[in-house]
Design goal:
The protein is an all-alpha fold and about 375 residues long. About 70% of the residues lie in helices and about 5% in strands. The strands form two sheets. The chain has a two-stranded antiparallel sheet. A two-stranded antiparallel sheet has the order 3-4.
């Protein structure tokens, strides 16, 4: 009876969240959108105060596989509601792309405790490499994407080397410098298109089908962005699986140990140099993949999409959702992509909004919306 009650709580919560997302995305009126945001915020506070949120967390802990499957079904069903609204599908696709990048950033900021403001630069490196290979050399997307990932990973390794003896804000300053150097180099190179960027980036082709073209089946028109959205969801699923496996491996344990106490980790025998470089490389690989997906989705890439502001935005996403918590990072990313897009009238104040969110979270809830759980290591279960 207790198991049934637990799974029912999780099922009700998942259905409520799914309905809330659909309603919010379907509304096109800014006043109604603001009212809904306020209502959802008050409802969230009420859930915490009444203890329902604790029941939800227990339900997730007791039935992780079932609720993950249910959530996956809801996620796959979401684009079906917006076939007649390509703009909403565009926002959802963009949010999923950024989720891939912030999952990688979470490895550095959340798991290892290294605040990296250069994730936007690695995002841009992956995008530019994939766009240049596809546009100038006619290389297939399925080859240019891993090439962009490897390029981002290589530069992540290069940036990681001078940061090995730095900590806290000194490390952050190095990453900020790298972000600005990358931005200025790409802007001043002729072969990258300079400030004009790269246009007419081709869409991926799979088994002769161009992903991104509109198709009509049985009188139903399926916008091209829907196909790209599902492709990005597939990549996001792979990223989640890899990140989950890394978190629950010896890599994740080593990163957490370094974050909590570097001196103790060194005394225990961990190689700080090796573990930190691995964190930089893995995080950069995720950013490179996201950048390649973004470039081929938008069809245009410029230096604006790899500026310091992009890296700052990604750090805000990780902190908002909950550091070292993959689910929290997804929530933070979705909120900071979807809400500003729905409130385009305040676009000039977007960076102010991001800054206020970051300061507010650091002051009042530094653990994020969904805090990470304490890790209990068991030699038999292997984490």
């Amino acid at each position: 009876m207790k198991d049934k009650s637990s799974i029912l709580t999780g099922f009700i919560f998942a259905c409520a969240v799914f309905a809330a997302v659909i309603i919010f995305m379907a509304i096109d009126n800014m006043a109604f959108s603001l009212a809904l945001i306020l209502f959802y915020a008050l409802a969230s506070i009420l859930l915490v105060k009444t203890g329902f949120w604790k029941k939800v967390r227990n339900s997730i802990s007791d039935n992780p596989k079932k609720l993950c499957l249910l959530t996956a079904c809801f996620v796959l069903a979401t684009p079906l509601f917006f076939f007649n609204n390509p703009y909403v599908l565009h926002i959802l696709t963009l949010a999923c792309i950024y989720c891939v990048a912030t999952i990688g950033l979470n490895i550095q900021v959340g798991s290892t405790g290294m605040v990296n403001f250069a994730q936007g630069a690695f995002f841009g490196i992956g995008a530019y490499v994939s766009a240049l290979l596809g546009g100038h050399f006619g290389v297939s997307f399925w080859i240019s994407l891993p090439a962009g990932m490897l390029a981002a990973g290589f530069f992540g390794l290069l940036m990681g080397l001078p940061t090995l003896k730095t900590r806290e804000y000194h490390l952050s300053l190095v990453t900020i410098a790298f972000a600005y150097i990358s931005f200025l180099l790409v802007m001043n190179f002729d072969w990258t298109g300079g400030p004009d960027g790269i246009a007419d980036i081709s869409k991926p082709v799979l088994f002769g089908f161009k992903i991104g073209q509109t198709v009509t089946v049985g009188g139903v028109t399926i916008p091209g962005v829907a196909f790209y959205c599902y492709m990005v969801l597939a990549f996001l699923g792979i990223a989640l699986l890899v990140a989950h496996r890394l978190h629950n491996s010896w890599y994740g344990m080593a990163w957490n140990a370094i974050r909590d106490d570097e001196i103790s980790s060194r005394c225990y025998g961990l190689s700080l140099r090796k573990s930190k470089l691995e964190a930089f490389v893995f995080g950069s690989l995720f950013a490179g993949a996201a950048g390649a997906l973004y470039a081929h989705f938008i069809g245009f890439m410029s230096t604006e999409n790899m500026s310091f502001q992009i890296g700052l935005l990604m750090v805000c996403m990780v902190i908002l959702g909950g550091m070292d918590n993959i689910a929290g990072v997804l929530v933070g990313t979705l909120l900071l992509i979807v809400i500003p897009e729905k409130l385009r009238a305040f676009d000039d104040y977007r960076m102010l909004f991001y800054g206020l969110v970051l300061i507010s979270m650091l002051l009042f809830r530094p653990q994020g919306i969904i805090p990470s759980k304490p890790r209990f290591f068991d030699l038999k279960k292997r984490v």
